[in-house]
Design goal:
mainly alpha; 9 helices; globular; 2 strands
Length: 210
């Protein structure tokens, strides 16, 4: 789904990226975010790429946002939850360095509504971001960890989305990294892929296409 240029649609779209109980917190976050700037030849302020289920509720994760980052200290007035929301939103920024910087602030979070932002970034397969995700999720190897339960629950509820994400990862690897990591079991990148394929999914439940 793509939203028209009318900026009045942007706030509802970004609010829809989170469970409804967080709507007031999202609006508080949006109040400290600069207005979206339009990139050349970009007729949309927000593109919504995928809808997924989080704890029984459908959320819509934006593909890209075009807001500058808030000024230094602007997030000091935000609560802890609101700061996590801010970092989630900027993990969808059009600048990859901005995405990575904000991902690193949320990847270790145990909040279920953070999970789709992390998995979506994995599907975009920027090597540095994949490595940051791997570093931030050490608990995936532990069957009893909160991280494994959170990601397992999300993937079990969103099997088609996960299968699509895995296909994208394989495609990007084949196009851009096969020359460097000729075997899919090569270091670094496959470690995270293997966690996606097995570590996220609770024992006895497999995602479709995995």
């Amino acid at each position: 789904m793509q939203l028209p240029r009318d900026s009045s649609n942007v706030a509802p779209a970004l609010t829809a990226a989170f469970p409804t109980r967080l709507a007031d917190d999202v609006r508080t976050v949006l109040a400290v975010m600069p207005e979206a700037r339009h990139a050349p030849m970009m007729p949309f302020e927000v593109e919504v790429e995928v809808e997924v289920e989080v704890q029984g509720e459908t959320v819509a994760i934006p593909s890209r946002i075009y807001n500058d980052e808030p000024g230094v200290g602007s997030d000091g007035q935000l609560s802890g939850t609101q700061q996590v929301i801010l970092h989630c939103l900027y993990s969808r920024h059009h600048d990859g360095l901005v995405r990575q910087r904000h991902l690193e602030r949320i990847v270790a979070s145990d909040e279920p509504w953070v999970v789709p932002f992390v998995v979506q970034l994995a599907g975009e397969y920027v090597l540095e971001i994949i490595e940051a995700i791997g570093r931030g999720l050490p608990g995936l190897a532990d069957p009893g960890s909160v991280q494994r339960r959170a990601y397992g629950e999300f993937i079990a509820r969103n099997a088609a989305f996960f299968a699509r994400t895995e296909r994208r990862v394989v495609s990007y690897w084949s196009c851009y990294y096969r020359w460097k990591y000729q075997a899919w079991s090569a270091p670094r990148t496959p470690r995270f892929r293997n966690q996606l394929a097995s570590g996220f999914v609770p024992r006895g439940r497999r995602a479709a296409g995995v």
